[in-house]
Amino acid sequence: MNATGVPELVLSGAVLAILLIAASWTLYFGLRTRREATASVADQERLSALLRTSPALAVIVRADGRLDAPDQLGDWLGLAAAPRYLADLASEAGGLSPRDADALAAEIAAAQKSGRPFSRSVRAIGSSRALMIRGAKAASELRAPGGVVLWVFDATDDLAEIERLSDEVAAAHRAFDVLTGLIQAAPMPMWYRGADMRLAMVNSHYADAVDAADPEDAVGRGLELLEGGGLGGPLAGAVAARDSDRLQVKAMPATIKGERRMLRVYDVPMPDGGVAGFAVDIEDLEQARAAIKRLGETERATLDRLSAGVAQFGADRALSFFNQPFQRIFGIESEWLADSPEFDRVLERMREGNRLPEVRDFPGWKAERRAWFVATGGAIEEQWHLPGGVHLRVVAQPLPDGGLLLIFEDRTEQVQLASGLDTLLRVRAATFENLFEALGVFAADGRLQIWNNKFRMLWDLDEAFLATHPRVDALAEKAAPRLANPDRAALIGELVRAATVERQQRGGQVRFADGRYFEFAAVPLPDGNGLFTMLDTTDRRRIETALRDRNEALEAADRVKTSFVANMSYELRTPLTSISGFAEMLSAGYGGKLNDTAGSYVEAILESVQRLGALVDDVLDLTQSDGPEPAVVREEVDLVPLARGAARAVAPLVERRTLEFVVEVMPSAGIVRGDPKRIRQVIEHLLRHAVVGTPPGGRILLHVDGDSSAARVVVSDDGAGMTPQAVARAFDRFAEPGLTRDGERALGLGLPLAKQFVEAHGGTIELMSEPGEGTAITVLLPRNR
After folding, report:
1. pTM of the entire structure?
2. Which pLDDT tens digit goes with each residue over 192-224?
3. At what angle do helices 343-352 and 362-370 cross, to 10 degrees?
4. Number of other CB atoms surrounding residue 304 within 10 Å
């Protein structure tokens, strides 16, 4: 290759290289442009898809009012075709209302001038759609100078939701206002704490409880209702509720209006981290609960002291309480009962101890008793007849809490007593029916309740009439014809009223028309009734009449006898006086001197005359003193000389019988008011009685003393004594003969006379004697009478 050809070859290679480079660049640029065009087409399609699927329609409003809008806008506005100009948005056929169209046009004009975006909601007249239009100045890339881009959203659903939410917000506001008013008016303190546990809101009751002017004052001053401080005090429940997000309930004390109260505090966590709270005053509830507890303890203590057995079962049918009588009646160990056995086990244990009634179907019987727990209609009562003659009255009372209270009353003794009472009633009825008396029992209202056959026959009453239980006035009307004096029938009603109403026992006598006599008596009975009795006294009345007649005859005979004795006594005094006078003349020698024998005879005559005269005087005194109180002289009598004089008068008789005579007259005998003659006769009669009853060598004592109220005279001897029969008749006139000094029988008038004279002075005389023990007679004479 020559030198000229090398450069050309180099040049050709260079040109070829340049052409290759240019072709490569052109190919690269073409491929890139193609890729960019493909990407642009893809972006255009993606943007078109986004526009088609976008919830908003893009509308370009140009400066001259022309609209670049999709056809769908016409559908949304209710127009037949998409609007081409801004003025087409409002028309007679549909679109926007003139007001909305004018407002939108003003917003668009303002955006064209100032570039300020806007947003407006409008409604289409020709459709039910609500549209939201947002506008902004068009970018330069849109090639719409002075234009505005409108984004039209279909906000029908959104506006409906907004309206619904607005209604809910309004309802929530109303509910909040109501709730706020309710909280303010609540009769309990209520409050709200923020997340920092500070009070944020309280009600008026809270403010009143903490003595704040108003709720705002209580919140501002942070006044706590509960006592204590810090998180461990009133805030403990609120902190626990916030941290655990659970309701906290706690009983805490508080002082409200100067009174100590117990509150149950509720702390409720809120979603915002705060805690709401309220307090319920449970002071009365606590006191009631304590009272109920004390009542329960008292009730159980009372039940434990009852004689009836008591067992209480809880809602789980386990034994919760029993008393000692229950354990004793059923013979169950207290250790076993203390384990709270179930109801069925208790029944089975009773059956094992042979303390249940004999039943064929025990499971069925037990099921029926188990139904007591859910029984309605009050207490259930039944009788259990146990082996061995034990009789139990069982009362089952269902309890409000689902438990059961059982009471077992041992009525064995009552049943036995009732049986005995029934027998007694039958005996009483038989006795009542067979009594000789006519009997009738009247109630407090005057009605005849019970009568015997004698009562019916006596009044001749019909059984049918008596079966009506007539009143006493009706019965008296029926009985009146049976009486001799029908008006006396009213006595029946008076006696019944006295016994039933006045509760007094009264009686009376009536004569029947047939001549019979009856005694009536009405006796009040313990049950408020009255017993009316009638006794036939006809025979007794006849006997009394005969005895009365005989007594009158005897009294007349006694008066004749007394008169005869008195007359004879007076008649005897005349010959005794003559005998005494002539004997004294013979003794004095008027008839000549008497020898010794004649003299002794004359002395014997004089002594006998003296004794006979004394006897006649006693008889006269006795017959003249037959009145209730013999007449005596009333004067002051000194007993000391009077008693000594009486002793001296009896002394010769004592000496002749060789007796020891002891006289003890004390100065305390003093003075009494009475008849000195009669008092001296009393002492002499007592002494003569003692002399007659004392054998020779015996001892007689006269003792006289006294005190401020009475004088006492005691005459005693150690003679043979007297039998009880003789003592009983010692003061009866002519009842028991006495003995003379020679052992001769004589009338015993001394003691009857002494008794009459002592009683005439208002005194008493007492004789005590036993055979072989002597006799003692005591006389008491009052100082003033």
Report:
1. 0.32
2. 888 888 888 888 888 888 888 888 888 888 888
3. 140
4. 14
